[in-house]
Each structure stands twice: as C-alpha cells, then as structure tokens.
Amino acid sequence: PMSIMVGSGRAAELGVLFRKGDALQELRDVDMVVFDKTGTITKGKPELTDLVMAEGFAEDEVLALIASVEALSEHPTADAIVRAAEAKKISLRPATNFRATAGYGIAVGSDRLMEKLGLDVQAFAAETNRMGEDAKSPVYAAVDGRLAAVIAVADELKPDSMGAIRALHDLGLKVAMVSGDRRGTAEAIARRVGIDHVLAEVLPEGKVEAIAALRAGAHAPRKIAF
C-alpha cells in the first residue's frame, strides 16, 4: 500500500494518473509501451506545408473550398488548413450537406476516402511519397467528382519525445506507435524518435485491435502499457 501511495503521488506530480492501484503494480511486468502519435509524440498542432494542384484547378479557389469544409471539423489537420486559408485572407463559404466519417476526413480527406469515392490518387504518387519521407501527412481534395489537389500537413515533434523514448529504452522496454497516417509518414516520424514498432493507417475504431495484434505478434510482449 505504501509503495502504491508514493508511486501514484509521484506520478501525479509528473502529470500521470493511474485509474487504480492494480495498474501501478502491474507496470513492473510491462515490456512494451505503445504511444498514440498525434498530441503524444507530436505537438498535435500541425501546419499546412504543401499544396499541389491538379491541372485545371486554381490554388486559392481550391484552398477556399477545402477550408470551408474543414472549418466544421475539430481535427488538428482541419484546423491547420483553416489557419492557412485565414493567413492568406481567403474568405470561407458556408458548407452544406456536411457529414464526418471518422478516419476518412470530411468530404476532403485521406486516400482511403478518395478510394471510397472511386478516385485514383496515383497521379499524386510522387508528391505523396516525398511528403511521407518528410514526415508530412497528405490530405486529398476532390471537387465536382474530380481529384483537385493534395496538400501536406506536418506536425512537429514534442521537444521531449526523443528523450522520453530513450529513457524507456534505457529501462529495457520496447516502444511502439499507433497512427492513422500513411505508413511512410508514420515510419519517418518513428525513425526520428527511435520507435521500435509502427502500426500505421489504423482507423480510430481499430486501435484496440492494433494492440491485440501487437500482443499476438511473433515477439509478443508479456504486457503492454498504452
């Protein structure tokens, strides 16, 4: 009881809360720690870095349309797009027939959304590969049933992420990261901070299954902290 009280008190000073004492006791058996990416490894405050247009589309016009849709979303990527439009003093327009789909974007979104709409994103393959290597997350836009643009959003690493992961490695722990990003983007971030395992392109509702997959893997840890 004394060790649990002292341990939970010290953790609270560091901003870590334990739901119950058993969780603190079981930590000694953990040999892998799994992090979510956005807002944990990264700051969770992405910035718009690239805007690549398809032929026949005007940059400011498409950015106005994208930002008008994303203004209705609370996702950090959406916020980055809206802030970029505001910085260029682009006026937003009221969006109608709005529908959000978790993990796919909002009428503007990931390659998964474009595929659901029957649109081929291969025309932007070179650009998205470059974005992924630079740890940037590509977001696509379709206008009137045509692929119009791909934009890149980058989320800076938290200053203490690398040190925290190094400290976990020093304790003999493996570190994994779960992300909804494309594999190339997620792996680029993992390389920067020294993460051992990456589970990429995981939809929000798939994170529990992702943890189960890690537990059942060839090098399955005894216990995982997430």
Report what the structure shows.
With 226 residues, the protein is an alpha/beta fold. It has ten helices and eight strands. The chain is elongated and about 65 Å long. The model has no long low-confidence stretch (mean pLDDT 87).
- Which strand order do you get reading across the main beta sheet? 7-6-1-8
Cα end-to-end separation: 24 Å
Helix and strand element order: HHEHEHHEHHEEHEHEHE
Overall geometric form = elongated
Low-confidence blocks of residues? none
Question: C-alpha Rg, in Å?
Answer: 20 Å
Structural class: alpha/beta
Number of strands: 8
Please, how many helices? 10
Write the layout of secondary structure elements.
Blueprint: H1 2-13, H2 21-26, E1 32-36, H3 37-41, E2 47-53, H4 59-70, H5 76-87, E3 108-109, H6 111-116, H7 125-133, E4 136-143, E5 146-154, H8 161-170, E6 174-178, H9 183-193, E7 197-199, H10 207-215, E8 224-225
Parallel strand pairs: 1-6, 1-8, 6-7
Antiparallel strand pairs: 2-5, 3-4, 4-5
Helix pairs in contact: 4-5, 7-9
Summarize the model shown.
With 226 residues, the chain is an alpha/beta fold. Helix content is 41%, strand content 18%.
